[in-house]
């Protein structure tokens, strides 16, 4: 019993002591595409033999359970504690219990002054001069606090109780997850008015949406899917952030494969100020070749005008000047003609491994139009149906265009086959047949075909 009491007294005296502040010496940040970052920091603290309470100022955490603190041999972390500001109105209200508050209704027609006794689900118990008041929906009221409340304004803090048998300067490593850092790939594509040439440049856009400055950090970026269990926001959301653009780096980072994801270690130390963003080169500007493809989605029983969609395809191969993993991101596509630069679209850029082809959809084109017509439909028996269709393509542009027509059948068209057609066809899948037409500049091309299909038994 005496032994237990002695341990409790030692721990209690350590808790009462003022913590010493550790000094940050080095920081490594690994930032993921799905809104999560892993920080590994090296700190130093001047410890005394026995137990020392150490504070690590300015930590920005996403998940308090992710914190790990390590030190050299013959040193032990007895415990660590994370203090966080409230994350919701109800949590903030609970921290105001016992204080004198003023509740102001949304319409400013009602003002209630009293001491907050207790916070209940959807209610607050307030002691007023007239007696106890059960206030419904307290979060809808504006709350005026007459004095400073450190529990609401103090940033996240990390404290640890360190045990060691020697005194002096000791290195400590702190690792944790945060959702305040995120990145995405940004591509700039330059295409000429005509032809297949292409210039592609890739950048990494890194954001720090926290109130913490990440100064002089070694940064790595990870592309690919990384599962996570904590409630870390996944969408990449832009705030009103200041933005800095780095000068071109001495070299762009090379991707390193890590069991299904890729790691890009940036070649220079970065500083990420609070509420700011920075853009660094990720892929050197490369001259490549592209393929323009136009798609028409047609349907059985359909008729009338159809949009013609533009697709830009880029082979991610060394023969095409590329040949390294391309992370998903956004692409800004420009038409470059002499000194004139026109924006063609801002669209998603798909995740494209080496050897694959990136297909970028740019929406309907202005100069190509399509029209579908159901020419004839005949019942050949109790379960056989013959249908004839016509599609006309108009090219108002100044160069020929290759158009792929994807004709989708109804669910009840079984055992189908094309019995006649003006152009070659291919079976894309069980319910889709494809045709490819080349439409000369300033001209029309027409497709006619007949389908024979079987209806399911009734």
Radius of gyration equals 32 Å
**Overall pLDDT, averaged?**
84
Helix content: under 10%
Q: What are the segments in which pLDDT stays under 50 over at least 5 consecutive residues?
A: 1-15, 230-250
Profile the largest sheet: 8 strands, mixed
> If helices are DSSP runs of H or I spanning 4 or more residues, what is the number of helices?
3
Shape category: elongated
- Strand content is over 45%
- Going by helix content, strand content and strand pairing, the class is mainly beta
Number of strands: 34
Distance between the termini: 85 Å
Describe the structure.
The chain is mainly beta. Helices cover 5% and strands 58% of the residues. Strands 2, 3, 5, 13, 16, 18, 19 and 20 form an eight-stranded mixed sheet that branches. The chain has a six-stranded mixed sheet with strand order 17-21-15-14-25-26, with no helix packed on it. Strand 9 (123-128) and strand 10 form a beta hairpin. The longest helix has 15 residues, at 2-16. The model is unreliable at 1-15 and 230-250 (pLDDT under 50).
Brief summary:
With 458 residues, the chain is mainly β.
Layout of secondary structure:
Blueprint: H1 2-16, E1 20-21, E2 23-32, E3 37-47, E4 50-56, E5 68-70, E6 75-83, H2 89-94, E7 100-104, E8 111-120, E9 123-128, E10 131-136, E11 142-145, H3 150-153, E12 157-164, E13 168-178, E14 181-191, E15 197-208, E16 214-223, E17 242-245, E18 255-258, E19 261-265, E20 270-272, E21 276-289, E22 291-299, E23 304-306, E24 309-315, E25 329-337, E26 340-349, E27 357-364, E28 368-379, E29 384-395, E30 401-408, E31 414-421, E32 425-429, E33 432-439, E34 443-454
Parallel strand pairs: 1-4, 2-16, 14-25, 17-21, 22-30
Antiparallel strand pairs: 2-3, 3-13, 4-12, 5-13, 6-12, 7-8, 7-11, 8-9, 9-10, 14-15, 15-21, 16-19, 16-20, 18-19, 22-24, 23-28, 24-27, 25-26, 28-29, 29-34, 30-33, 31-34, 32-33
């Amino acid at each position: 019993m005496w032994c237990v009491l002695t341990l409790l007294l030692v721990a209690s005296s350590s808790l009462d002591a003022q913590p010493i502040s550790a000094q940050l010496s080095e920081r490594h940040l690994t930032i993921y595409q799905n809104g999560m970052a892993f920080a590994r920091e090296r700190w130093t603290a001047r410890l005394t033999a026995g137990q020392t309470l150490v504070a690590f100022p300015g930590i920005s955490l996403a998940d308090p359970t992710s914190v790990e603190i390590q030190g050299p041999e013959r040193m032990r972390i007895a415990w660590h504690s994370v203090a966080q500001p409230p994350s919701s109105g109800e949590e903030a209200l609970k921290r105001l219990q016992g204080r004198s508050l003023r509740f102001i209704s949304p319409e400013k027609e009602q003002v209630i002054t009293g001491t907050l006794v207790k916070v209940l689900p959807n209610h607050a118990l307030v002691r007023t001069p007239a007696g106890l008041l059960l206030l419904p929906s307290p979060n809808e009221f504006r709350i005026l606090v007459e004095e400073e409340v450190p529990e609401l304004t103090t940033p996240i803090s990390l404290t640890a109780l360190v045990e060691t048998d020697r005194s002096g300067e000791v290195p400590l490593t702190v690792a944790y997850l945060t959702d305040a850092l995120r990145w995405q790939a940004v591509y700039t594509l330059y295409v000429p008015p005509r032809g297949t040439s292409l210039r592609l440049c890739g950048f990494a856009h890194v954001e720090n949406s926290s109130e913490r400055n990440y100064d002089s950090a070694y940064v790595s970026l990870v592309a690919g899917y990384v599962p996570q269990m904590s409630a870390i926001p996944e969408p990449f959301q832009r705030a009103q952030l200041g933005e800095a653009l780095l000068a071109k780096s001495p070299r762009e980072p090379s991707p390193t494969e890590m069991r299904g994801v890729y790691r890009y270690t940036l070649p220079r130390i970065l500083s990420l100020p609070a509420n700011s963003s920075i853009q660094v080169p990720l892929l050197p500007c490369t001259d490549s070749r592209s393929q323009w493809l136009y798609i028409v989605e047609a349907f059985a029983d359909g008729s009338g005008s159809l949009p013609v969609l533009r697709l830009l395809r880029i082979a991610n191969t060394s023969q095409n000047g590329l040949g390294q993993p391309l992370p998903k991101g956004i692409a800004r596509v420009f038409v470059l003609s002499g000194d004139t630069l026109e924006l063609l679209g801002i669209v998603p850029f798909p995740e494209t491994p080496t050897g694959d082809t990136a297909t970028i959809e740019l929406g309907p084109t202005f100069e190509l139009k399509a029209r579908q017509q159901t020419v004839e439909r005949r019942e050949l028996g109790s379960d056989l149906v013959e249908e004839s269709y016509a599609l006309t393509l108009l090219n108002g542009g100044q160069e020929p265009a290759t158009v792929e027509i994807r004709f989708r059948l109804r669910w009840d068209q079984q055992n189908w086959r094309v019995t006649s057609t003006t152009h070659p066809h291919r079976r894309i899948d069980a319910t889709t047949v494809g045709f490819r037409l080349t439409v000369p500049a300033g001209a029309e091309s027409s497709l006619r075909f007949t389908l024979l299909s079987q209806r399911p038994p009734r």
